[in-house]
TrEMBL record:
Designated name of the protein: Acetyl-coenzyme A synthetase
Domain (Acetyl-coenzyme A synthetase N-terminal) ranges: 36-91
Positions bearing N6-acetyllysine: K629
Enzyme Commission number, as recorded: 6.2.1.1
Organism of provenance: Acidovorax carolinensis
Domain AMP-binding enzyme C-terminal: 547-629
Gene Ontology terms, MF aspect: acetate-CoA ligase activity; AMP binding; ATP binding; metal ion binding
Class of this enzyme: ligase
Keywords tagged on the record: Acetylation, ATP-binding, Ligase, Magnesium, Metal-binding, Nucleotide-binding
Cofactor requirement: Mg(2+)
Chain residues that bind CoA: R201, G202, G203, K204, T321, S539
Length: 664
C-alpha cells in the first residue's frame, strides 16, 4: 500500500454548494437532512434492529429470518442467515397481482434504434421458461453458470433465470478475451455458458460465440457441459454438436411457469471477477438476501424512485453497476428501465440525449468518462449538444465508477440537468454490492466532486495506517468499520485472500476499501482521492497493474520484464503506461512503434481491449533499488512527464531514467 498522501496533492478547495430545492426536499422519500439524520440515528441506536426492519419491509421471505447479523466468524459475516428467499421472485413474482404486473419493466433500445418493450408479467414468463431450459439441461441449485452476453433483455433473463433456480451466475463482460473467459470458467467451475452468436455495437457485428469456442478449445474446462447461444443476429456461428444449443432449441417445449427455488439468505447469488493488486482477478462472491436488500433499498434511497420514473443506468451487465442497477435493483423496486445495447457515440454523440428525450427518462445514471467524452463531442459539434434534445423529463442524475472532476460535474449539472436535477455522485465498489457513500437527492446539499456522506448504517471513516481516525481535512485510508448487508462475502475459492485483501490486521478488523479519501473540514464530506493499491481505473474500469504486467511478460519470446503504472488522463481518468524490457536490444524509432503495437494487441488478446496500454516505453532495464525492487514511484513520475524530484540515491542504475522518459 503506497502512502495515500501521494494522491492528495491536488486537494482542491471547492466552495460551490448546491442544496436541493424546497420542492425537491418536500417530495422526497428521505426528506431533508433531518430525514437522513433520523435514519442514521436509528441505525446508531439499534444497528441490527435497523437492518432487520428494512429487510422485513423490503424483501419477501419464504422463511423469515430470526437472526440478523452473525459476527462469530468475522470477517465472514452472515446476514439474515436462517431466512430463505428467492431473488428472482423478489424481482418478478412479487409484482404479479399488483398494478405493476402490466407495467413496462424494460424498454430495450437496440444498437440500430429498434425499440422493444416488455412488461413484468412477460419478463416473468420468459425468465421462467429459460430457467426451465437450464433445469432440463441439468443445471441445479448451487451450480455456476458463466454469462457472456451483450446488453439485451436476454442478458437480464439469463441472470434472473439462474437466480430463479438457485444457480450462481458469473457474468463476464463481453469485451474480455478468450483467455479471461477460460480462467473464469475454470476458477468458477462453471457447468454452462450463456452467450450470443454476435453482439451489435456501433453498427458493427462483433463475435461472442467464437470467443467462447476459443476459450473452451484451450482445454481444462472439465465441468462445462452446455453452451446456450442467443441468436442476436441472423449470421450463423459455429455450433458444437451435443454441447451447444440455440436459445430457440433450448426453449422449445419449455413451460413459462417455473416455481422459484427458495435459498438461504447467504446462498451465493453471483460471483463477479474484478481486478485486485495481484495478477489473478478476484471472484467477488455476493449473497442473496443482503445483496438484494441493498439493491432495492438504494433504488429508493439514492434515486428516490417513484412509480412513474423511467430509470436508465448505462452500465453493462458485465460490471457490478449493471448487476445492481440494471438486473436486480430496478426490478426489485418495480421500476421501468431503459436498456441500451449500443455505444454513446453511434450513430452520433448525441445518442444519450436523444434517448433521454425519446423515452422520457427521469433518472439517468452514467460514468464520468462518458460525460467527459460527450462534453468534448458537444463542444466540437453543436448538433450533438444536449441542448438539442428535450431533457425536461430528467429529475435526478447520477455518476459512478470514478471521481468526477468538478468541471465535468458542472457541465452535467448545467447542460444535462438544466440546473434543476440533483447529481448523486455514488461511491461504491464491486465488493460493496451497492452505493455506500452518496448524496441523497432530496436531502444532501451537493458539492461538485464530492460523494458527500455515507448512507445510513454505513460506518465509513478515514484512518491512518494503524486504523486510527484522522481529522477532517487530513487525507487517509477509506474504511468501513462495521459490516453491512450487501458486503462481499468471500473471494470464491480463496478465503485467505479475502481476509488479507479486505481485513488487514493493522486496521482493527475494518473493511479496507482500497481508496484514499479526505473529509472536508467544514461539512465532513468525503472526497475520494483514488486507489491506494496497484489498481488502476481507466474509463471507470478496474484493472490491476500486475494483471497487465503478467500479460506482457507472458509474451515470452519478446518480453523480459515489464512494469505498469497509471498516469492521469483528461478523458479516461487514468491511462495505462507500460515500461518494458525486451529480450533483445532496446528498439527505437519505427521499430519501437511497431513492437509497441504488437504488445498492445497481445494485451488485448490476453485480457481484453480495455487493458491495452496507451504508452509503451522501452528500456535496457527498469529503475530498481539495490535490493532489486522496481521503483514504481519514479515510473509514475516519468509517465506523467514530471521532473524527477524523488530521492534516487538507492537507485542501482540512474541512467535508465532518461531512456524511459522517451516516448515512442
Ligand atoms: C461501482 C464501481 C470501484 C472503484 C473504487 C473507486 C472508484 C467508484 C466512485 C469511485 C470516486 C466515485 N469509484 N465510484 N471513485 N467517486 N463515485 O465502480 O465498482 O468497478 O469495483 O470500481 O472505482 O476507486 O474503489 P468497481
Amino acid at each position: 500500500m503506497s502512502s495515500p498522501n501521494s494522491s492528495i496533492e491536488s486537494v482542491l478547495v471547492e466552495n460551490r454548494v448546491f442544496p436541493p430545492s424546497d420542492a425537491v426536499v418536500k417530495a422526497a422519500r428521505i426528506s431533508g437532512m433531518a430525514g437522513y439524520e433520523a435514519l442514521c440515528a436509528e441505525a446508531d441506536k439499534d444497528f441490527e434492529g435497523f437492518w432487520a426492519r428494512l429487510a422485513r419491509e423490503n424483501l419477501q421471505w419464504t422463511k423469515p429470518f430470526t437472526r440478523t447479523l452473525d459476527e462469530s466468524n468475522a470477517p465472514f459475516f452472515q446476514w439474515f442467515a436462517d431466512g430463505e428467499l428467492n431473488a428472482s421472485a423478489n424481482c418478478l413474482d412479487r409484482h404479479i397481482g399488483t398494478p405493476t404486473e402490466n407495467k413496462t419493466a424494460i424498454i430495450f433500445e437496440a444498437d440500430d434504434g429498434a425499440v422493444t418493450r416488455i412488461t413484468y408479467k412477460e419478463l416473468l414468463a420468459r425468465v421462467s421458461q429459460f430457467a426451465n431450459a437450464l433445469k432440463a439441461h441439468g443445471v441445479e441449485k448451487g451450480d455456476r453458470v458463466l454469462i457472456y452476453m451483450p446488453m439485451t433483455i436476454e442478458g437480464v433473463i439469463a441472470m434472473q433465470a439462474c437466480a430463479r433456480i438457485g444457480a450462481t451466475h458469473s457474468v463476464v463482460f463481453g469485451g474480455f478475451s478468450a483467455k479471461a473467459v477460460h480462467e473464469r470458467v475454470i476458477d468458477a467451475g462453471a457447468v454452462a455458458i450463456v452467450t450470443a452468436n454476435y453482439q451489435m455495437r456501433g453498427g458493427k457485428e462483433l463475435p461472442l460465440k467464437a470467443i467462447i469456442d476459443e476459450a473452451l478449445a484451450t482445454g481444462g474446462c472439465d465441468t462445462l457441459r452446455n453452451v446456450f447461444v442467443y441468436e442476436r443476429t441472423p449470421t450463423a456461428c459455429n455450433m458444437v454438436e451435443g454441447r451447444d444449443k440455440t436459445f430457440a432449441q433450448a426453449l422449445a417445449g419449455q413451460s413459462t411457469d417455473c416455481p422459484p427455488v427458495a435459498v438461504g439468505a447467504e446462498h451465493p447469488l453471483f460471483i463477479l471477477y474484478t481486478s485486485g493488486s495481484t495478477g489473478k482477478p478476484k471472484g467477488v462472491q455476493h449473497s442473496t438476501g443482503g445483496y438484494l436488500l441493498w439493491a432495492k433499498l438504494t433504488m429508493d434511497w439514492t434515486f428516490d424512485l417513484r412509480p412513474d420514473d423511467i430509470f436508465w443506468c448505462t452500465a453493462d451487465i458485465g460490471w457490478i453497476t449493471g448487476h445492481t442497477y440494471v438486473t436486480y435493483g430496478p426490478l426489485a423496486a418495480g421500476a421501468t428501465q431503459i436498456i441500451f445495447e449500443g455505444i454513446p457515440t453511434f450513430p452520433n454523440a448525441g445518442r444519450f440525449w436523444q434517448m433521454i428525450e425519446r423515452h422520457k427518462c427521469s433518472i439517468f445514471y452514467t460514468a464520468p468518462t462518458a460525460i467527459r467524452s460527450l462534453i468534448k463531442a458537444a463542444e466540437g459539434d453543436a448538433a450533438v449538444h444536449p441542448a438539442r434534445s428535450d431533457l425536461s423529463s430528467l429529475r435526478i442524475l447520477g455518476s459512478v465508477g470514478e471521481p468526477i472532476n468538478p468541471e465535468a460535474w458542472m457541465w452535467y449539472y448545467k447542460h444535462v440537468g438544466g440546473e434543476r436535477c440533483p447529481i448523486v455522485d455514488t461511491f461504491w465498489q464491486t465488493e460493496t454490492g451497492g452505493h455506500v457513500i452518496t448524496p441523497l437527492p432530496g436531502a444532501t446539499p451537493l458539492v461538485p466532486g464530492s460523494c458527500t456522506l455515507p448512507l445510513p448504517g454505513i460506518t465509513a471513516a478515514i484512518v491512518d495506517e494503524t486504523g486510527n481516525d484522522v481529522a477532517n481535512g487530513a487525507g487517509g485510508i477509506l474504511v468501513i468499520k462495521r459490516p453491512w448487508p450487501s458486503m462481499i462475502r468471500t473471494i470464491w475459492n480463496d478465503p485467505e485472500r479475502f481476509k488479507k485483501s479486505y481485513f488487514p490486521e493493522e486496521l482493527k478488523g475494518y473493511y479496507l476499501a482500497g481508496d484514499g479519501a479526505v473529509r472536508s473540514a467544514d461539512r465532513g464530506y468525503f472526497r475520494i482521492t483514488g486507489r491506494i493499491d496497484d489498481v488502476l481505473n481507466v474509463s471507470g474500469h478496474r484493472m490491476g497493474t500486475m494483471e497487465i504486467e503478467s500479460a506482457l511478460v507472458s509474451k515470452t519470446d519478446l518480453v523480459a520484464e515489464a512494469a505498469v503504472v497509471g498516469r492521469p488522463d483528461d478523458l479516461t481518468g487514468e491511462a495505462i503506461c507500460a515500461f518494458v524490457v525486451l529480450k533483445r536490444s532496446r528498439p527505437t524509432g519505427e521499430e519501437a512503434k511497431q513492437i509497441a503495437n504488437e504488445l498492445r494487441n497481445w494485451v488485448a488478446k490476453e485480457i481484453g481491449p480495455i487493458a491495452k496500454p496507451k504508452d509503451i516505453r522501452f528500456g535496457d532495464n527498469l529503475p530498481k533499488t539495490r535490493s532489486g525492487k522496481i521503483m514504481r514511484r519514479l515510473l509514475r513520475s516519468i509517465a506523467k512527464g514530471e521532473a524527477i524530484t524523488q530521492d534516487t540515491s538507492t537507485l542501482e542504475n540512474p541512467a535508465i531514467l532518461d531512456q524511459l522518459s522517451q516516448t515512442n
